[in-house]
Amino acid sequence: MSVRAMKAGAVDFLPKPFRDQDMLDAVVSAIERDRERRASLGQAVDIFGRFSKLTPREQEVMMITTTGKMNKQTAAELGISEVTVKLHRRAAMQKMEARNLPDLVRMADVVRPLINVSTGE
What we know:
By secondary structure, the chain is an all-alpha fold. It is built from six helices and no strands.
C-alpha cells in the first residue's frame, strides 16, 4: 500500500496507528516543501522573463557560450565575428543581471529545459 501511495505522488506515509505529532510533522514538512517549490518556480519565471527580453541573437549567443564554447567557436557556429559575439554576450549578461559567466550558466540551466519544451526540441 505504501509503495502504491508513493508511486501516486505521496511524499510521506504514516502507518496506523500514528501519533498526532507525526501527523503535524508531516504537514509542516509538506508545507515547507511546497514553499521551497514555489520559491524555485518564482525564480525560474523571473529568469525566463529576463531571457525573453533578449534579442534572438543574444539568446543564441547566451545558450551557445554557456555550454562552454569559446567566443571564437560561437562566432564560427553563428557565422558572425568574435567581436560581435562579445557584444551580444555582454548585452545578454547585463539584461540577465548576471554578475559573471558562471552566474549566466546557472541561469541558462534554468532556461534551457523551458525553451526546449516551448520549441519542441
